[in-house]
Amino acid sequence: MGFISRLREDITTAREHDPAARSNAEIVLAYSGLHAIWAHRLAHRMWAVKPLKTPARVLSQVARGLTGIEIHPGSTIGRRFFIDHGMGVVIGETAEIGDDCMLYQGVTLGGTSLEQTKRHPTLGDGVTVGAGAKVLGPVLIGENSAVGANAVVVKSAPEDSVLIGVPAKDRKRREEEHQPLVDPAAYALDPALFI
């Protein structure tokens, strides 16, 4: 996928996840989650080149200062990832995030070990993590799962799970919970309203 196509996909993803988005210009200029993701992509490429690891970390820290979102350049992030109201989000070095995932403000994908191993979470495709949630250690959150706000997850969960509580317990996601929490189309302006 080309650079411009990827930017368009990011803007479309923001529009689909945020009913408050009014224009592409607003998204490009004012969405700190998007800015953090763009900075991460560059830092991640730099991280892969040994002599550029320190500059990659410096770039990630500059992005953190500007956006309030800390994404380690070693973390792996899939396509159509969105961070809504990102202040306080922390994504650790060995975290892996699948395609079509979404994080809200205050989320931590953190480690529980000081060893240089896989020590951060893996989120499968389509995972949503609610505001203030903490997902800690090398756990796997299965595809299409949802982590509730302020949950503390320390154990892996199968796909289609809902994780809530401290410590979080998982249960099978009900059919009605597969619907998006917000339908962006419901917020689209109908031109007929202005005639």
From TrEMBL:
The keyword Transferase applies. Its EC number is 2.3.1.30. GO terms for biological process: cysteine biosynthetic process from serine. Pfam families: Hexapep. It catalyses: L-serine + acetyl-CoA = O-acetyl-L-serine + CoA. Pathway: Amino-acid biosynthesis; L-cysteine biosynthesis; L-cysteine from L-serine: step 1/2. One of its GO terms (cellular component) is cytoplasm. SUPFAM superfamilies: Trimeric LpxA-like enzymes. Gene3D superfamilies: Hexapeptide repeat proteins (2.160.10.10), serine acetyltransferase, domain 1 (1.10.3130.10). It is an enzyme of class 2 (transferase). CDD domains: LbH_SAT (cd03354). GO terms for molecular function: serine O-acetyltransferase activity. Keywords: Acyltransferase, Amino-acid biosynthesis, Cysteine biosynthesis, Transferase. The keyword Transferase applies. Belongs to the transferase hexapeptide repeat family. NCBIfam families: cysE (TIGR01172), EPS_EpsC (NF041874). This is Serine acetyltransferase. It comes from Nesterenkonia natronophila. The lineage of its organism: Bacteria, Bacillati, Actinomycetota, Actinomycetes, Micrococcales.
